[in-house]
């Protein structure tokens, strides 16, 4: 019976529920209308406009202020061509901690200085702590633990001015900026300002600029003028690999 | 309550007594000093409010003028009282005159001391009366409308716009929330003033202003009456304006305040001298106003490991308890904090979390413990996140926690959407109802994993507290013993606002709120 199973056409892919190309998508959202049959119909029509065939409201609930919550399924009518996709990313083999330490010893032959902070009004240090603090995150030690790396974590709500001043003071090889709060795109403003200030100081080509956070990816980082961006699932060894390789590649030894 | 964990009562007593000595040691320091925030609070409580033409709050204008005139060590109450006797005006009118340059408050002739005291206390008593009435009003609502069962369901709103917050808060109340916290905009803890009036812009939260407090309290009163259940309002009494926020909350009948003795030092890099003096007055006000304080031990676990550093949470709870007692906060208003933050991949992690929560319950039997949800290991997988929150809810009902800060499946993605809150409330209500009396029916195996874990954490906490007792809290913090964060005695923000009191200093509100008028 195997021959009856369709083959995936990578130039036209769509979601998979339990049969190839059934297009099944689960979604949920709220509409600012009171709970009832009309609300369900509105949700269904909206899903049709989003490009779903046979949308079905499988659950709806009154949210109590004249708003209604829905869970729907629908069959997606669109496809994308997977073969033509290109995603810019930090494209390298990541070394582990020992390899990074070895690499520094062998090629850089001095301590690498990395300054990090949550800048602007951001008070969420979870990200920068996961990368920099001794303890690290989820079994991956942070940069403080690395032999050959002097990691300085300035903490939260650090103004861009102070971060740059510190970087200059300690002759940092790299600046790490963490941005967790992204409401109203405050992170974009903040990250852009830092790049502009680094350029104004005339140190842009001497320093490696890296940003990170749950809503940051490499493409966004590059657009904003950073050397790299690290998103969800990044650990200290990823950042460390990138920084030490950049030092060598850009001849910042 | 009989101990299910077979905890050694002598160890508990020893830990508590060490914490008491730690707090007493710091209290000696606190009693010698005041801060610009404390004095602005005195001004506010005497009726000074509003802003000048460049939006600088008049309490700041007034206290800055007294500080520049070299009079702050005497206390704002003295100068305001003296100006009242000299001019016959109200504190508000005096602040306006200072603002316009009509008078130099520290250059007025010094009036008769008895007259000054009389003027100050008459004004102060009116405010104290207003706060008492707020307390009575809350009690009346609680007696006539009633309240949700414990653990109270606590959710946050954080739109940045107070009017949008109102909509979300009312929706959450209708879905079953008992406490609504309006998250503050991220920068506010480091502002050395409190913004004025209703606000509609903020990042990751909404400015705490007295007008915003009033708008939200009014909206929640309406929905409380509609639902027949009193809905509590919570805000953040932390940062550089700790006591001012407490005063505003007391005046507008807030019910719950985040109010930790050490949080600002560790996590906002506020100078330790400043925060310790500020927290004392803020807690006196919160205690007097009947406000439940929530302490911030959960935050340690966002920087330190929840399994390895569990004893620092317990040690901090002991210290927070003693600081709170010093400020006259009864145990029933101590929402001591802790959190469900162990790595979900840890084998038997649920048992360790259960041990920790039960231990806190047994050691602080009267406190409405504030239990914080998983945040550190929330991944964006909203489906697993919903399960983690369920495990957290299960422990809460099992161990009789007081305040359940509901976890959101979308934690680590965005501030909660309207329906995220509904899903979380539904999760908690289902589990609380379905397992309501599990804690009364199930006991733990003698010397099993749970008992042993709790005993070990208690022993380590006792050891740490004795070490801090020997060393003093300032030096302990300098060494990074809490949350792995190091802060220096003279570092951080706000030190310039600390002033040593002179022997004639007085603050009528400490007397009226902590003294016999209770």
Q: What labels would you give this structure?
A:
A: alpha/beta; Defensin A-like; Rossmann fold; 2 domains; 5-stranded parallel β-sheet; 8 strands; B: 518 residues; alpha/beta; 9-stranded parallel β-sheet; 20 helices; globular
Descriptive report:
Chain A is an alpha/beta fold and 253 residues long. Helices cover 31% and strands 21% of the residues of chain A. In chain A, the strands form two sheets. A five-stranded parallel beta sheet of chain A has the order 5-4-6-7-8, with helices on both faces. The N and C termini of chain A lie far apart (62 Å). Chain B is an alpha/beta fold. Chain B is 53% helix and 7% strand. Chain B has a nine-stranded parallel beta sheet. Chain B has a two-stranded antiparallel sheet with strand order 1-11. In chain B, helix 6 packs across helix 20 and helix 9 packs parallel to helix 11. The mean pLDDT of chain B is 95. Chains A and B meet through strand 1 of A and helix 7 and helix 16 of B.
- CATH top level assignment of the largest domain in chain A: Alpha Beta
* Rg measurement of chain A, Å: 24 Å
Average pLDDT of chain B works out at 95
Looking at the structure, the CATH topology of the largest domain in chain A is Rossmann fold
- Gross morphology of chain A is elongated
Give the tally of structural domains of chain A: 2
What is the correct CATH architecture of the largest domain in chain A?
3-Layer(aba) Sandwich
Question: How far apart are the first and last residues' alpha carbons of chain B, in Å?
Answer: 30 Å
Could you tell me which chain pair has the largest interface and how many residues each side has? A-B, 28 and 35 residues
Can you write the helix and strand succession of chain A as a string? EHEEHEHEHEHEHEH
Specify the helix fraction band of chain B: 40-55%
Q: How many strand units of chain B?
A: 11
Mean pLDDT rating of chain A: 91
Radius of gyration of chain B, rounded?
23 Å
User: Which strands sit side by side, in order, in the main sheet of chain A?
Assistant: 5-4-6-7-8
Q: How can the largest sheet of chain A be summarized?
A: 5 strands, parallel
Number of helices of chain B: 20
Helix and strand composition category of chain A: alpha/beta
Proportion of beta-strand residues of chain A: 15-25%
- Count of individual helical segments of chain A: 7
